[in-house]
Specification:
By secondary structure, the protein is mostly helical. The protein is built from 5 helices and no strands. The protein has 2 domains: 51 residues, no CATH class; 31 residues, no CATH class. The N and C termini lie far apart (64 Å).
Length: 94
């Protein structure tokens, strides 16, 4: 990611953030902070990078593997629920 100098940029982000939150709180609008950043000239050097940075896939880390590990067929949760499943099967068969 390209770097921009801090200081004034930090203040600008804070102002844009406050403006966006006002829209959300008082107008029940959507948070448009990213659009505001992408329209602000001082952030032009990073406009291309902003949308890439906001990709949710960038933030999930090991979640898919953890879900399989804990919730999959042999996962901890399935093992903990095994007695409940067995009791349910016994009830159905009676």
């Amino acid at each position: 990611m390209k770097l921009v100098s801090l200081g004034d940029h930090d203040k600008k982000v804070r102002v844009l953030s406050h403006d966006a939150s006002e829209v959300v709180k008082k107008v029940d609008g959507k948070n448009d902070l990213i659009k505001r950043i992408n329209k602000t000239e001082v952030f032009k050097p990073v406009w291309e990078e902003v949308d890439k940075t906001m990709d949710p896939e960038s933030f999930i880390g090991r979640c898919p593997e953890q879900v399989v590990r804990y919730c999959g067929e042999e996962g901890n949760i399935q093992q903990a629920l095994a007695p409940v499943h067995e009791a349910h099967r016994e009830r159905k068969s009676n």
